[in-house]
């Protein structure tokens, strides 16, 4: 049986880093970052682009699910609303799969530290700080497994996920 890991969290919580390590830790794994499905300049949020990114994500995830080479499909994206998680799950062929929905959470101090490091390294811009901090609490109400990443190594986090 395949396993699909849907990993959400605020910007800067460590979704991509954790997912990349999880891909290495789990046998026969493939990883998709939702940001790769909507990497545009200028970045435009419209009804059309939101529909497009969901189509892109679900198309790719279903292709991974249908490919016999993969046992573990890892997907990460912000997914700050239950409707986003539900829409993705509803469009996936999960009849022969176990779906694990995860929210990576973090305290404000740790998130600030991570984002400031990313800003200093020119990975992110300053306007992301307030937006990301404002979303921290949104993950508490989602129907997901919560994994607190505060003061934990990537390996500790991936061990928690692999044990689910």
From TrEMBL:
Pfam families, sorted: AAA_18
Organism: Fusicatenibacter saccharivorans
Name of this protein: AAA family ATPase
Organism classification: Bacteria, Bacillati, Bacillota, Clostridia, Lachnospirales
